[in-house]
Specification:
By secondary structure, the protein is an alpha/beta fold. The chain folds into two domains: 116 residues, Rossmann fold, CATH 3.40.50.720; 170 residues, Dihydrodipicolinate Reductase, domain 2 (2-Layer Sandwich), CATH 3.30.360. The protein is built from ten helices and 14 strands. The structure holds nicotinamide-adenine-dinucleotide.
């Protein structure tokens, strides 16, 4: 019989329910346990299989699962991941890995002590356009990278904040760079490596009353590889998500990826290179009231299974997760 990896999901909200479904859909994975603090009638997932339900997080991490998926609000990630690791479970941690680099480091140290894997969720890396871009950069087809501009213009409306007991809270959510745009910071780190932050400005155009942090910002970045970059972001866009794009200007070529979810090659001018056809028709997570990032969680679960059964390497590891937190922390260090 095929060996299967046993998963337990903690926090079965918008994204936890997606984890649970991807586990069910993977023929080498078993969904063994679920835990959420909500009363059963408020769950976003089928609760009819009583054998899946745990009465506490402790029950979940004491069960027979191999992997615990931490899909709770941001501020709980570090504490829950550490508890699961201390119970000798591998952990999948939704983004952001933690709300401070100190906490992210504690996760790394605990994982090393117990010799267990940490899988960070940064699923945009699985998008075909991003895989293509990584290949273009790795093969140095653009030559020396001079400038990078990332624009993330999204809509998160009043209901998004008022419907949640953690979105908009400085301590529980952390801010748009943690909750919405850490995906794009991860892409910058993945493509260009270390970033030395230089300067930033933050703005609140819309959400002053019910959000404890900025909704928009302009960040100037200096990369260790000498390229310069700008990240412009906003969650205060009228009506709906408008743009997520990255423009890269190199000595031998220029590329622009766009679409709502950085899923389309908009421009590609590279010396002696023909732009390939890429299947860029990827889905995004649709949460009803708002649209999220690329819906590649199936690929992330598959990576967990492949690491544990086929000895493949972890797609987005704890050091990647740590660096993203460190970059955000550095940008936010000038926030009031
Ligand atoms: N990778 C992505 O694209 C993506 C998308 C959305 C959310 N996320 C991340 O996933 C996490 C959850 O986000 P969401 O949108 O699903 O939020 P959510 O509010 O919809 O779900 C969180 C769930 O955790 C539960 N919870 C709270 N405290 C708990 C505890 N102590 N133990 C167990 N369950 C608890 C809540 O009841 C809720 O059901 C966040 O960290 C968020 O940043 C990632």
């Amino acid at each position: 019989m095929t060996k299967k990896i046993k998963f337990g999901v903690a926090g079965v909200g918008h994204i936890g329910s997606r984890h649970a479904q991807c586990i069910i859909d993977n023929n080498r994975a078993d969904l063994l346990k679920l835990f959420d603090v909500l009363p059963l009638n408020k769950w976003r997932f089928d609760t009819s299989k009583k054998e899946l339900l745990c009465s506490s997080f402790e029950d979940l991490i004491n069960s027979d699962v191999d992997v615990v998926n931490i899909c709770t609000p941001n501020y709980l990630h570090a504490q829950m991941a550490i508890e699961a690791l201390q119970n000798y479970k591998h952990v999948v941690i939704e983004k952001p890995m933690a709300l401070s680099s100190e906490d992210a480091e504690k996760i790394i140290n605990t994982a090393q002590k117990v010799n267990k894997h940490v899988f960070c969720v940064m699923q945009n890396r699985f998008s075909p356009t991003m895989i293509w871009l990584k290949d273009v950069i790795s093969k140095q087809l653009l030559g020396t990278i001079n400038m990078v501009v990332v624009n993330c213009f999204w809509n998160r409306n009043k209901n998004y904040y008022l419907d949640s007991d953690w979105h908009g809270s400085r301590l529980k959510d952390g801010g748009p760079l943690f909750t919405q745009f850490s995906h794009f910071i991860d892409i910058l780190y993945w493509l260009f490596g270390e970033i030395d932050y230089t300067s930033s400005q933050f703005f609140s155009f819309n959400q002053k009353k019910y959000v404890e942090f900025e909704d928009s910002g302009i960040v100037k970045l200096n990369f260790a590889n000498k390229a310069i970059g700008v990240l412009n972001y906003s969650t205060a866009v009228w009506k709906q998500n408008f743009e997520s794009s990255i423009t890269i200007l190199g000595a031998c070529g220029s590329v622009k990826i766009g679409g709502q979810y950085m899923d389309k090659i908009l421009d590609c001018e590279i010396d002696q290179y023909n732009r390939p056809h890429i299947d860029d028709d990827i889905a995004c997570n649709d949460y009803g009231g708002y649209m999220g990032s690329a819906s590649n969680h199936d690929k992330m679960i598959d990576n967990v299974v492949q690491v544990l059964l086929d000895e493949k390497s972890v797609h987005t590891n704890s050091f990647d997760g740590f660096h993203v937190v460190k970059i955000i922390e550095s940008i936010y260090s000038s926030r009031n």
